[in-house]
Amino acid sequence: MNIQVYNLSRNTSDADLRKLFSPYGVVDSAEVMRDKLNGRSKGNGIIDMPVERDARQAIVALDQTLMDGKKISVSELRLPPNW
């Protein structure tokens, strides 16, 4: 299941996201979205957790919590049809 995280600090790394979500289950990938031109964080990230139950627990537990001094928003990533 893919999860989206918004309002990340510019200092948050892929490893930080993985560490945050790992207590809830296996994390296949964790990536902070970066600007292609300058490499700076766009303030959001995508996490892939293979077990839906674990992913849903992580969403409930982590949504609206503080990370690096910022309140993050965590939700299921829903792709449009025919993506």
From TrEMBL:
Record-given protein name: RNA-binding protein
GO MF annotations, alphabetized: mRNA binding
Family annotation (Gene3D superfamilies): 3.30.70.330
Pfam family, one: RRM_1
RRM domain sequence ranges: 1-79
Keyword RNA-binding: yes
Organism: Niastella caeni
PROSITE patterns: RRM
Matching SUPFAM superfamilies: RNA-binding domain, RBD
Origin: domain of life: Bacteria
Keywords: RNA-binding
Keyword Glycoprotein annotated: no
Taxon lineage: Bacteria, Pseudomonadati, Bacteroidota, Chitinophagia, Chitinophagales
